[in-house]
Write a structure and sequence with these properties.
96 residues, alpha+beta, four-stranded antiparallel sheet, globular
Length: 96
Amino acid sequence: MAHVRVIARAVAREGKVEELKALLRGMVAPTRAEAGCIYYELFESNIPGLFYFNELWESQQHLDAHAASKHFTEIFGKSKPLMQGPPEVNLLTEVV
C-alpha cells in the first residue's frame, strides 16, 4: 500500500490566532498516537495567522480513520469559527 502525504493549511480569523493555535496544538499528541500515523507536524508560518500540518500516513484508510476520529471532529468543530473558511487539504504525489 502506498503512503499518503498531506499538507493542510488553516488560516486564522483576525484576532483569533492564539486561540486557533492552542486548538490546533491539541491535535498533535492524539494524532501521533493513532494507528498508521508515521509523522504529524504542526507549523506556524512567518505570515501571521497561517498554520500548516505536514503529515504522512501508512494508507488512505489510516487517514480516513484520522478524519473520523473523536479528537479530529471535536477540535475542528471548535476551530471553525476561528478560521477564515475550511482548512485547505492537499494530498501530495512525489514528482520524480
